[in-house]
# Entry
Amino acid sequence: SYPADKLKQLRDGWAAMDVPRVDTVCIYGHGLKTPSAYVYHELDGTAPYETIYTDGDGTVPIHSLSACDSWQAKQKQKVLVKRFSNVEHLKAIQDPVIFKYFADILTNM
# Structure
């Protein structure tokens, strides 16, 4: 498994990430089984012994996808956050509902 000190360093770095300070639209999918961690019992790391799953978009875990959720309270500029159920990471841009969401935002700017 990943060393605890490295995980803490990653988590702390992510938490300290600066906000964009511009109007932002953040979309992401959720509700899909998503790999979150891999446990290896062999030092060569050739194949995971166990995969740990969490919520997400099938590619990116929810704890990463939702980073922009906290930006609303940390900046003056607008942050629109929209979550889409059961939308896969790589198919999001082709999803007609998401496409319409973006079109509506651009139309109303």
